[in-house]
Amino acid sequence: MTLAPKDVSYVRELVFDRSAIVLGEDKQYLVESRITMLARDLGLGSAEEVIARLKRDGDRTLEERVIEAMTTNETSWFRDVHPFNALKSVIIPEAMERNAAKRSLAIWSAACSTGQELYSVAMMLDSDFPELSSWKLDLVGTDISRKAVEKAQSGLFTGLEINRGLPATMLVRYFVRDGSGYRIRDDIRNKVRFGVLNLIEPWPPMPLFDVILLRNVLIYFDMDTRRRILGLAKQQLVQGGVLILGGAESVLSLVDGFVPVTIGTTTVYHKDKENV
Amino acid sequence: MTRALVVDDSRAMRSILTRILSSLGMEVVEAEDGQSALAKLQQFPPFDVALVDWHMPGMTGLELISDMHRQPKWRSMAIMMVTTESDQSQIVRALNAGAHEYLVKPFTADAVAEKLLLLGVKFSKGNGSESTMGGNN
User: Which A residues in the span 81-100 are in contact with B, Cβ-Cβ below 8 Å?
Assistant: First the structure.
Protein backbone atom coordinates (compact mmCIF):
# COMPACT_ATOMS: atom_id res chain seq x y z
CA MET A 1 0.00 0.00 0.00
CA THR A 2 1.30 3.45 -0.88
CA LEU A 3 1.44 6.07 1.86
CA ALA A 4 -0.16 9.42 1.17
CA PRO A 5 2.41 12.13 0.37
CA LYS A 6 1.33 14.09 3.47
CA ASP A 7 2.10 11.05 5.68
CA VAL A 8 5.52 10.62 4.11
CA SER A 9 6.18 14.34 4.67
CA TYR A 10 5.06 13.98 8.28
CA VAL A 11 7.64 11.22 8.87
CA ARG A 12 10.38 13.16 7.05
CA GLU A 13 9.71 16.23 9.17
CA LEU A 14 9.60 14.23 12.39
CA VAL A 15 12.93 12.54 11.59
CA PHE A 16 14.54 15.88 10.69
CA ASP A 17 13.18 17.55 13.82
CA ARG A 18 14.45 14.84 16.17
CA SER A 19 17.67 13.75 14.46
CA ALA A 20 18.52 16.40 11.81
CA ILE A 21 18.67 13.56 9.32
CA VAL A 22 17.51 14.67 5.91
CA LEU A 23 15.35 12.12 4.11
CA GLY A 24 15.14 13.34 0.53
CA GLU A 25 11.92 13.36 -1.43
CA ASP A 26 13.21 10.28 -3.25
CA LYS A 27 13.00 8.29 -0.01
CA GLN A 28 9.26 7.56 -0.20
CA TYR A 29 9.91 3.84 -0.66
CA LEU A 30 12.28 3.76 2.31
CA VAL A 31 9.72 5.51 4.52
CA GLU A 32 6.95 3.14 3.45
CA SER A 33 8.96 -0.05 3.85
CA ARG A 34 10.49 0.86 7.22
CA ILE A 35 7.20 2.08 8.73
CA THR A 36 5.42 -1.01 7.41
CA MET A 37 8.03 -3.23 9.11
CA LEU A 38 7.60 -1.22 12.32
CA ALA A 39 3.81 -1.68 12.11
CA ARG A 40 4.36 -5.45 11.96
CA ASP A 41 6.74 -5.34 14.94
CA LEU A 42 4.20 -3.37 16.97
CA GLY A 43 1.25 -5.54 15.95
CA LEU A 44 -0.44 -2.64 14.20
CA GLY A 45 -2.43 -3.13 11.01
CA SER A 46 -0.57 -0.82 8.67
CA ALA A 47 1.92 1.99 8.20
CA GLU A 48 -1.03 4.40 8.13
CA GLU A 49 -2.04 3.26 11.60
CA VAL A 50 1.46 3.96 12.93
CA ILE A 51 1.34 7.50 11.54
CA ALA A 52 -2.23 8.06 12.76
CA ARG A 53 -1.12 7.11 16.29
CA LEU A 54 1.88 9.41 16.08
CA LYS A 55 -0.31 12.34 15.10
CA ARG A 56 -3.06 11.53 17.59
CA ASP A 57 -1.13 10.57 20.74
CA GLY A 58 2.19 12.41 20.47
CA ASP A 59 3.65 9.19 21.93
CA ARG A 60 7.40 9.83 22.50
CA THR A 61 8.19 6.12 22.68
CA LEU A 62 6.52 5.56 19.33
CA GLU A 63 8.36 8.57 17.92
CA GLU A 64 11.62 7.03 19.11
CA ARG A 65 10.73 3.75 17.39
CA VAL A 66 9.99 5.61 14.14
CA ILE A 67 13.32 7.48 14.31
CA GLU A 68 15.07 4.16 14.97
CA ALA A 69 13.28 2.51 12.08
CA MET A 70 14.29 5.30 9.73
CA THR A 71 17.91 5.66 10.86
CA THR A 72 19.08 2.12 11.53
CA ASN A 73 21.28 1.01 8.69
CA GLU A 74 22.82 -2.34 8.06
CA THR A 75 26.44 -2.64 8.94
CA SER A 76 29.23 -5.13 8.61
CA TRP A 77 32.43 -6.24 10.28
CA PHE A 78 35.64 -4.49 9.21
CA ARG A 79 33.44 -2.47 6.88
CA ASP A 80 35.28 -1.48 3.68
CA VAL A 81 38.45 -3.18 5.05
CA HIS A 82 40.76 -0.29 4.07
CA PRO A 83 40.09 2.01 7.06
CA PHE A 84 40.95 -0.91 9.34
CA ASN A 85 44.17 -1.48 7.42
CA ALA A 86 44.96 2.21 8.00
CA LEU A 87 44.24 1.82 11.71
CA LYS A 88 46.46 -1.25 11.93
CA SER A 89 49.38 -0.03 9.86
CA VAL A 90 49.67 3.62 10.89
CA ILE A 91 47.04 5.17 13.16
CA ILE A 92 47.21 2.79 16.14
CA PRO A 93 51.05 2.49 16.09
CA GLU A 94 51.32 6.31 16.01
CA ALA A 95 48.83 6.71 18.85
CA MET A 96 50.73 4.12 20.90
CA GLU A 97 53.96 6.01 20.36
CA ARG A 98 52.28 9.27 21.37
CA ASN A 99 50.70 7.69 24.46
CA ALA A 100 53.63 5.49 25.51
CA ALA A 101 54.06 7.35 28.80
CA LYS A 102 50.45 7.27 29.94
CA ARG A 103 49.71 3.86 28.39
CA SER A 104 46.11 4.56 27.51
CA LEU A 105 44.14 4.64 24.28
CA ALA A 106 40.62 5.92 23.66
CA ILE A 107 38.58 5.21 20.53
CA TRP A 108 34.99 6.26 19.79
CA SER A 109 32.67 4.70 17.23
CA ALA A 110 30.25 7.62 17.03
CA ALA A 111 27.46 5.94 15.05
CA CYS A 112 28.08 2.37 16.09
CA SER A 113 24.75 0.85 15.01
CA THR A 114 24.69 -2.72 16.36
CA GLY A 115 28.34 -2.70 17.38
CA GLN A 116 30.19 -4.40 14.54
CA GLU A 117 32.55 -1.47 13.95
CA LEU A 118 33.66 -1.15 17.57
CA TYR A 119 33.93 -4.91 18.08
CA SER A 120 36.03 -5.07 14.90
CA VAL A 121 38.39 -2.51 16.44
CA ALA A 122 38.49 -4.42 19.74
CA MET A 123 39.30 -7.71 17.97
CA MET A 124 41.98 -6.06 15.85
CA LEU A 125 43.64 -4.50 18.91
CA ASP A 126 43.60 -7.85 20.72
CA SER A 127 44.90 -9.75 17.71
CA ASP A 128 47.55 -7.37 16.36
CA PHE A 129 48.65 -5.32 19.36
CA PRO A 130 49.15 -7.76 22.25
CA GLU A 131 51.23 -5.16 24.10
CA LEU A 132 48.00 -3.20 24.64
CA SER A 133 46.82 -5.86 27.08
CA SER A 134 48.52 -3.91 29.86
CA TRP A 135 47.18 -0.52 28.67
CA LYS A 136 44.03 1.25 29.75
CA LEU A 137 41.68 0.98 26.78
CA ASP A 138 38.51 3.04 26.49
CA LEU A 139 36.51 1.78 23.52
CA VAL A 140 33.19 3.62 23.28
CA GLY A 141 30.29 3.09 20.90
CA THR A 142 27.24 5.35 20.64
CA ASP A 143 24.21 5.40 18.42
CA ILE A 144 20.92 7.26 18.17
CA SER A 145 18.99 3.97 18.28
CA ARG A 146 18.37 2.45 21.71
CA LYS A 147 17.45 -0.85 20.07
CA ALA A 148 20.74 -0.94 18.12
CA VAL A 149 22.71 -0.11 21.27
CA GLU A 150 20.99 -2.88 23.22
CA LYS A 151 21.87 -5.36 20.51
CA ALA A 152 25.47 -4.13 20.51
CA GLN A 153 25.61 -4.61 24.27
CA SER A 154 24.28 -8.16 23.96
CA GLY A 155 27.18 -9.15 21.69
CA LEU A 156 24.89 -11.72 20.06
CA PHE A 157 24.71 -11.91 16.28
CA THR A 158 22.83 -14.05 13.75
CA GLY A 159 24.53 -16.17 11.11
CA LEU A 160 23.55 -13.66 8.44
CA GLU A 161 25.14 -10.83 10.43
CA ILE A 162 28.27 -12.87 11.09
CA ASN A 163 28.62 -13.53 7.34
CA ARG A 164 28.95 -9.80 6.69
CA GLY A 165 32.69 -9.26 6.41
CA LEU A 166 33.90 -11.11 9.50
CA PRO A 167 37.09 -13.05 8.65
CA ALA A 168 36.67 -16.76 9.37
CA THR A 169 39.75 -16.72 11.61
CA MET A 170 38.14 -14.01 13.75
CA LEU A 171 34.88 -15.96 14.00
CA VAL A 172 36.75 -18.99 15.26
CA ARG A 173 38.89 -17.03 17.68
CA TYR A 174 36.52 -14.46 19.17
CA PHE A 175 33.02 -15.97 19.11
CA VAL A 176 31.21 -18.82 20.80
CA ARG A 177 28.17 -20.59 19.39
CA ASP A 178 24.92 -19.48 21.02
CA GLY A 179 21.82 -21.23 19.68
CA SER A 180 21.64 -20.55 15.97
CA GLY A 181 23.82 -17.44 16.34
CA TYR A 182 27.22 -16.51 17.71
CA ARG A 183 28.15 -14.49 20.79
CA ILE A 184 31.31 -12.44 21.04
CA ARG A 185 33.70 -13.64 23.73
CA ASP A 186 33.24 -12.00 27.13
CA ASP A 187 36.81 -10.69 27.29
CA ILE A 188 36.20 -8.68 24.08
CA ARG A 189 32.73 -7.58 25.16
CA ASN A 190 34.16 -6.36 28.47
CA LYS A 191 36.61 -4.10 26.63
CA VAL A 192 33.88 -1.99 25.04
CA ARG A 193 31.01 0.16 26.31
CA PHE A 194 27.96 1.35 24.44
CA GLY A 195 25.45 4.14 25.01
CA VAL A 196 22.66 6.06 23.31
CA LEU A 197 23.67 9.42 21.85
CA ASN A 198 21.88 11.62 19.35
CA LEU A 199 24.72 13.55 17.71
CA ILE A 200 22.60 16.69 17.27
CA GLU A 201 21.76 16.91 20.97
CA PRO A 202 24.24 18.09 23.64
CA TRP A 203 27.04 15.56 24.04
CA PRO A 204 27.59 14.16 27.53
CA PRO A 205 31.00 14.50 29.19
CA MET A 206 33.32 12.08 27.44
CA PRO A 207 37.06 11.53 27.47
CA LEU A 208 39.21 12.98 24.70
CA PHE A 209 39.71 10.35 22.03
CA ASP A 210 42.75 9.32 20.03
CA VAL A 211 40.52 8.12 17.20
CA ILE A 212 36.93 8.95 16.30
CA LEU A 213 35.13 6.83 13.72
CA LEU A 214 32.29 8.89 12.25
CA ARG A 215 31.62 6.89 9.13
CA ASN A 216 28.68 7.19 6.78
CA VAL A 217 26.80 9.51 9.14
CA LEU A 218 27.42 13.03 7.85
CA ILE A 219 25.87 12.17 4.50
CA TYR A 220 22.45 12.13 6.19
CA PHE A 221 22.76 15.66 7.60
CA ASP A 222 22.45 19.11 6.04
CA MET A 223 25.59 21.29 5.74
CA ASP A 224 25.03 23.30 8.93
CA THR A 225 24.57 20.16 10.99
CA ARG A 226 27.68 18.61 9.42
CA ARG A 227 29.70 21.69 10.38
CA ARG A 228 28.40 21.63 13.94
CA ILE A 229 29.09 17.92 14.43
CA LEU A 230 32.57 18.14 12.91
CA GLY A 231 33.36 21.09 15.19
CA LEU A 232 32.30 19.10 18.23
CA ALA A 233 34.22 16.04 17.04
CA LYS A 234 37.35 18.18 16.74
CA GLN A 235 36.96 19.32 20.34
CA GLN A 236 36.57 15.69 21.40
CA LEU A 237 39.90 14.63 19.84
CA VAL A 238 43.31 14.84 21.48
CA GLN A 239 45.82 16.99 19.61
CA GLY A 240 47.09 14.86 16.73
CA GLY A 241 44.05 12.62 17.10
CA VAL A 242 42.47 11.12 14.00
CA LEU A 243 38.96 11.44 12.58
CA ILE A 244 37.86 8.71 10.18
CA LEU A 245 34.89 9.43 7.93
CA GLY A 246 33.07 7.32 5.34
CA GLY A 247 34.51 6.99 1.84
CA ALA A 248 32.06 9.55 0.41
CA GLU A 249 32.54 12.08 3.20
CA SER A 250 35.06 14.86 3.82
CA VAL A 251 35.72 17.73 6.24
CA LEU A 252 37.02 19.92 3.45
CA SER A 253 35.22 23.25 3.10
CA LEU A 254 33.19 22.46 6.21
CA VAL A 255 35.54 23.01 9.14
CA ASP A 256 39.12 24.16 9.69
CA GLY A 257 41.73 22.50 11.83
CA PHE A 258 41.97 19.08 10.22
CA VAL A 259 44.81 17.92 8.01
CA PRO A 260 43.93 15.20 5.48
CA VAL A 261 46.38 12.31 5.42
CA THR A 262 46.11 9.46 2.93
CA ILE A 263 47.04 5.99 4.15
CA GLY A 264 46.81 3.41 1.38
CA THR A 265 43.44 4.10 -0.21
CA THR A 266 41.95 5.72 2.89
CA THR A 267 41.99 9.43 3.68
CA VAL A 268 41.78 10.30 7.38
CA TYR A 269 41.86 13.67 9.14
CA HIS A 270 44.44 14.57 11.77
CA LYS A 271 43.49 17.25 14.24
CA ASP A 272 45.99 19.96 13.45
CA LYS A 273 48.39 20.47 16.35
CA GLU A 274 48.13 24.23 15.84
CA ASN A 275 44.35 24.11 16.24
CA VAL A 276 42.81 23.55 19.63
CA MET B 1 38.85 -9.69 -15.78
CA THR B 2 38.77 -11.58 -12.49
CA ARG B 3 37.93 -15.25 -12.97
CA ALA B 4 35.97 -17.38 -10.53
CA LEU B 5 35.29 -21.11 -10.29
CA VAL B 6 32.01 -22.04 -8.59
CA VAL B 7 31.81 -25.65 -7.37
CA ASP B 8 28.44 -26.83 -6.07
CA ASP B 9 26.25 -29.82 -6.87
CA SER B 10 23.12 -27.67 -6.65
CA ARG B 11 22.30 -26.02 -9.96
CA ALA B 12 20.25 -23.38 -8.12
CA MET B 13 23.15 -22.49 -5.86
CA ARG B 14 25.58 -22.32 -8.78
CA SER B 15 23.15 -20.05 -10.55
CA ILE B 16 22.82 -17.72 -7.52
CA LEU B 17 26.59 -17.47 -7.06
CA THR B 18 27.19 -16.99 -10.78
CA ARG B 19 24.65 -14.17 -10.86
CA ILE B 20 26.24 -12.43 -7.87
CA LEU B 21 29.80 -12.81 -9.18
CA SER B 22 28.82 -11.72 -12.70
CA SER B 23 27.16 -8.60 -11.24
CA LEU B 24 30.58 -7.86 -9.70
CA GLY B 25 32.12 -7.95 -13.17
CA MET B 26 33.68 -11.40 -12.82
CA GLU B 27 33.93 -14.20 -15.37
CA VAL B 28 32.51 -17.39 -13.88
CA VAL B 29 32.98 -21.08 -14.69
CA GLU B 30 30.75 -23.62 -12.94
CA ALA B 31 31.52 -27.20 -11.86
CA GLU B 32 28.96 -29.62 -10.41
CA ASP B 33 31.36 -31.73 -8.36
CA GLY B 34 34.98 -32.11 -7.26
CA GLN B 35 36.16 -34.18 -10.25
CA SER B 36 34.63 -31.73 -12.68
CA ALA B 37 36.27 -28.86 -10.78
CA LEU B 38 39.71 -30.50 -11.06
CA ALA B 39 39.14 -31.01 -14.79
CA LYS B 40 38.18 -27.36 -15.26
CA LEU B 41 41.17 -26.21 -13.24
CA GLN B 42 43.36 -28.13 -15.71
CA GLN B 43 41.41 -27.06 -18.77
CA PHE B 44 41.04 -23.30 -18.18
CA PRO B 45 43.55 -20.52 -17.51
CA PRO B 46 44.19 -19.90 -13.79
CA PHE B 47 41.26 -18.77 -11.67
CA ASP B 48 41.58 -15.92 -9.15
CA VAL B 49 39.11 -17.45 -6.72
CA ALA B 50 37.26 -20.71 -6.15
CA LEU B 51 33.99 -20.93 -4.21
CA VAL B 52 33.54 -24.50 -3.03
CA ASP B 53 30.57 -26.31 -1.43
CA TRP B 54 31.31 -28.87 1.28
CA HIS B 55 28.81 -31.66 0.68
CA MET B 56 28.90 -33.00 -2.86
CA PRO B 57 28.61 -36.52 -4.27
CA GLY B 58 31.95 -38.27 -4.72
CA MET B 59 34.77 -35.98 -3.69
CA THR B 60 33.79 -33.62 -0.84
CA GLY B 61 34.62 -29.94 -0.93
CA LEU B 62 37.10 -30.51 1.87
CA GLU B 63 38.94 -33.12 -0.20
CA LEU B 64 38.86 -30.87 -3.25
CA ILE B 65 40.34 -27.96 -1.30
CA SER B 66 43.10 -30.20 0.08
CA ASP B 67 43.89 -31.35 -3.47
CA MET B 68 43.92 -27.79 -4.82
CA HIS B 69 46.06 -26.60 -1.93
CA ARG B 70 48.68 -29.30 -2.60
CA GLN B 71 49.19 -28.17 -6.21
CA PRO B 72 51.79 -25.36 -6.38
CA LYS B 73 50.28 -24.03 -9.63
CA TRP B 74 47.00 -23.25 -7.85
CA ARG B 75 48.55 -21.75 -4.71
CA SER B 76 47.83 -18.16 -5.75
CA MET B 77 44.10 -18.89 -6.12
CA ALA B 78 41.93 -17.70 -3.24
CA ILE B 79 39.67 -20.45 -1.92
CA MET B 80 36.41 -19.85 -0.11
CA MET B 81 34.21 -22.59 1.29
CA VAL B 82 30.49 -21.86 0.88
CA THR B 83 28.42 -24.27 2.94
CA THR B 84 25.63 -24.84 5.46
CA GLU B 85 28.21 -26.21 7.93
CA SER B 86 28.28 -23.49 10.59
CA ASP B 87 30.07 -25.06 13.57
CA GLN B 88 33.37 -23.46 14.40
CA SER B 89 35.07 -26.88 14.47
CA GLN B 90 34.09 -27.34 10.80
CA ILE B 91 35.37 -23.87 9.93
CA VAL B 92 38.71 -24.78 11.50
CA ARG B 93 38.80 -28.00 9.43
CA ALA B 94 38.21 -26.04 6.23
CA LEU B 95 40.88 -23.47 7.09
CA ASN B 96 43.34 -26.24 7.96
CA ALA B 97 42.58 -27.95 4.63
CA GLY B 98 43.54 -24.79 2.76
CA ALA B 99 40.43 -22.60 2.57
CA HIS B 100 41.24 -18.90 2.97
CA GLU B 101 37.70 -17.81 3.80
CA TYR B 102 34.39 -19.32 4.78
CA LEU B 103 30.82 -18.29 4.00
CA VAL B 104 27.83 -19.92 5.65
CA LYS B 105 24.61 -20.47 3.67
CA PRO B 106 22.25 -18.67 3.52
CA PHE B 107 24.08 -15.49 2.54
CA THR B 108 23.43 -12.20 0.82
CA ALA B 109 25.12 -10.77 -2.26
CA ASP B 110 26.73 -8.13 -0.04
CA ALA B 111 28.23 -10.87 2.14
CA VAL B 112 29.86 -12.46 -0.92
CA ALA B 113 31.35 -9.12 -2.00
CA GLU B 114 32.65 -8.42 1.52
CA LYS B 115 34.36 -11.82 1.67
CA LEU B 116 35.96 -11.21 -1.75
CA LEU B 117 37.23 -7.89 -0.40
CA LEU B 118 38.78 -9.71 2.56
CA LEU B 119 40.46 -12.11 0.14
CA GLY B 120 41.86 -9.24 -1.91
CA VAL B 121 39.98 -10.48 -4.99
CA LYS B 122 39.41 -7.60 -7.39
CA PHE B 123 35.90 -6.85 -8.59
CA SER B 124 33.96 -3.90 -9.89
CA LYS B 125 31.36 -2.35 -7.63
CA GLY B 126 28.22 -4.21 -8.51
CA ASN B 127 24.67 -3.46 -7.63
CA GLY B 128 25.11 -3.41 -3.85
CA SER B 129 21.39 -3.49 -3.33
CA GLU B 130 21.08 -7.01 -4.69
CA SER B 131 19.60 -9.11 -1.95
CA THR B 132 19.76 -12.60 -3.39
CA MET B 133 19.88 -15.15 -0.63
CA GLY B 134 21.69 -18.44 -0.81
CA GLY B 135 19.46 -21.43 -0.10
CA ASN B 136 19.77 -24.38 2.22
CA ASN B 137 21.69 -26.80 0.11
Answer: 81
